[in-house]
Amino acid sequence: MSREVRKAETHDFNAVRSIMNQVQEMHVEWRPDIYKSNENLISEEIFDLMCKSGNLYVADVDGKVVGVLEVEHKHVESPAHVTRDVLFISSMAVEASFRGQGIGHLFFDKVKELKTISGADGIELQVNAKNGAAYEMYRKCGFSEKSINMELV
């Protein structure tokens, strides 16, 4: 079995959109007061721009796209903060039938590699409070809580 994380290419659009839609539906199920079903979360034009940015990756298993990873480089500098460069995981999603098979760990290996190459000080992400499986995976990979978002409805 061949497994790799590679930069996304324009021909990956349908697979990426399908995976993003699966995750959107999880969010809708957890928080229908905030999220809505939308099969057109991303247009082909926006996807092409994301591919060209070089910050969009896919997990490929035997030629099938089974996961999506988007990272951002963030420079943090303010009077209140220590100046840092952070690699921020803005999206990480795995095809439902491939969850629990190590794809997330493949993505983390790639992110660690990108951190080293870029010289970033750290890696950060946000996780939905209802997504216990992802939260536990992140903890097992060494992530710890930095802050907690709260709301009053």
Plain-language structure description:
There is one protein chain. With 153 residues, the protein is an alpha+beta fold. Helices cover 35% and strands 29% of the residues. It has four helices and five strands. Strands 1-2-3-4-5 form a five-stranded mixed sheet. β4, α3 and β5 form a beta-alpha-beta unit. The longest helix has 18 residues, at 13-30. The termini are far apart. The model has no long low-confidence stretch (mean pLDDT 94).
Compute the separation of the termini in Å. Answer: 48 Å
Given the C-alpha coordinates, what overall shape results? Answer: globular
Oligomer: single chain
Radius of gyration: 16 Å
Structural class: alpha+beta
The largest beta-sheet arranges its strands as 1-2-3-4-5
Q: What is the number of strand segments? A: 5
Mean pLDDT: 94
Total helices: the number is 4
Low-confidence stretches: none
Beta-strand percentage?
25-35%
Helix content: 25-40%
How would a crystallographer describe the biggest sheet?
Answer: 5 strands, mixed
Order of helices and strands: EHHEEEHEH
Which features characterize this protein?
29% strand; 35% helix; alpha+beta; globular; five-stranded mixed β-sheet; single chain; 153 residues
Helices and strands in order, then pairings?
Layout: E1 3-7, H1 13-30, H2 44-53, E2 56-61, E3 64-78, E4 81-94, H3 103-118, E5 122-125, H4 132-140
Parallel strand pairs: 4-5
Antiparallel strand pairs: 1-2, 2-3, 3-4
